[in-house]
Amino acid sequence: MNRKSLSQLLLLLVMLSGIVIAPAQNVPKAIKDLKPTVILISLDGFRPDYLDKYPAPTLSLLAKQGVRAKWMTPSFPSLTFPNHYAVATGLYPDHNGIVANNIYAAEFNETFSMNKRAEVENGRWWLGEPIWVTAEKQGQRAGAFFFPGTEAEIAGKRPSIWKTFDDNYPNFERVDTILSWLDKPRAERPTMITLYYSDVDHGGHDAGPDSEDVKKAIERVDQALSRLVDGLKARGIFERVNLVIVSDHGMARVDPRNVVVLDDYMELPQAQYIAWNSSMVHIFPKPGMGETIYSALKAKLPHASVYWKQEIPARFHYGTSNRIGDIVVMADEGWSLTSRERYRPVQPAADGSVKYRGAHGFDNQLESMRALFIGRGPAFKRGQIVEPFANVDVYNVMTKILKLKPAPNDGNPATVKAVLR
Fold first, then answer.
1. Which among 125, 124, 88, 78 is positioned nearest to 103, based on CA atoms?
2. What is the dihedral of CA 238, 239, 243, 245, to 10 degrees?
3. Which of 73, 129, 336, 400 has the lowest CB atom count within 10 Å?
């Protein structure tokens, strides 16, 4: 039998046996010319005590190898968009423009919400200078796999690479994509990268912080982190990349029946506009109606605090932005604010029970609202747990690692010394 016939026979045997010959896996090349690099990873809604309550082997190992804060204090309000952008800019929401998830801006008579795509991508809302703009302005490249603000042109800049938000994008593919960015030639490779996961936040909202949903969500994001670590090791850069792992806020267990209907205590038509954020309401009164609204709410409203904008306690760092209502109502922990039109009664189960859920946006000093901070890489101290700090401090930590000149911000420089070598 000649060589050609033998090859054909072997091929026929393989086909008949049902064996599939898989192509060889592409082994990534070692990266030997890496500049100082930060990967900022947001685990939305990850309360710091989850790390001690639920299995997360990769995240726990990263925390032991690097720096972990006892907790990180979110900015007020403890909502998703304000706090992501506080981390990115080092500015409190009062200064960064994103004063809530839902905003009314009289300056251009427009509203902002997370679901209004045109406004999310409109740079007029996003004040200050986020870390990816700082990097781009100073000659570095940024890549963003989701992070509030990265879809807008801010101060004339966008990340060199960015993605339109799609919460259904598979977790592992997010990791593989940012690894592919690191495989780019040195001149094209981003040094500032963001990565975002919402799993834990969704689990907390759906079933509360003490739930199997949260446990399973943490398992999923930990597997994604494991894939990232393996990918960095395969490229020989795990010990050279700096991972900054944060959450935006924590999560409180709530009874969904704990609702305050605002128009039981005030006449809603007396307001020009009301920005609803569940745990917080901004009221913009019609001319001459401010005192009437304030007095009515202050006298009777239960399970909430009512403030004139200028009287909000200083510890909130909140109350100077013109996007904050003249009157601000803050719900007590575990309660929500709504209107008759917006209210949807809870439907009990067949046995009469009601499923507990989770919520955030409350007083940022509450234990339930605490956020996560872990730093791991060559710039960070190793094996240390540090005292709590505010999330506006993270911006200066990242600019220090990347050797960038920081934009003006509200961060405390002492945190840089506390966490970096």
1. 125
2. 90
3. 400
Hey, how many other C-beta atoms are within 10 angstroms of the C-beta on 92?
25
Q: Which of 80, 134, 399, 415 is catalytic?
A: 80
- 369 neighbors 250 (Cβ within 8 angstroms): yes
The pLDDT score that the predictor gives to residue 8 is: 52
The residues with which 181 forms a beta bridge, in sequence order, are none
Positions in the chain short of pLDDT 50: 3-4, 6-7, 10-25
Domain 259-355: assigned CATH number = 3.30.1360.180
Q: Kindly calculate the radius of gyration of the chain based on its CA atoms and give it in whole angstroms.
A: 24
39 token code pair: 């990967």
Q: How far apart are CA 174 and CA 228, in angstroms?
A: 9
Give the residue among 348, 350, 420 at the shortest CA–CA distance from 386: 420
Q: Which residue has the tokens 């690479």?
A: 161
37-251+364-419 CATH fold: Alkaline Phosphatase, subunit A (3.40.720)
DSSP code string of 306-323: EEEGGGS-GGG--S-STT
pLDDT for the residue numbered 137 = 98
C-alpha 304/C-alpha 288 separation (Å) is: 24
Sign of CA dihedral 391, 329, 45, 169: negative
70: nearest Cα among 406, 370, 416, 403: 370
**164 counts as catalytic:** no
CA distance 83 to 87: 6
Predicted pLDDT at 295: 98
Distance of CA 159 to the CA centre of its chain: 17
- Exposure pattern of 201-223 as b/e (b: 16+ CB <10 Å)? bbbbbebbbebebbbebbeebbb
| 151 within 8 A of 165, measured Cβ to Cβ | yes
Every domain of the chain and the residues it spans:
37-251+364-419, 259-355
Backbone dihedral angles phi then psi of residue 276, each to the nearest 5 degrees: -95, 130
Please give the pLDDT value at position 222: 98
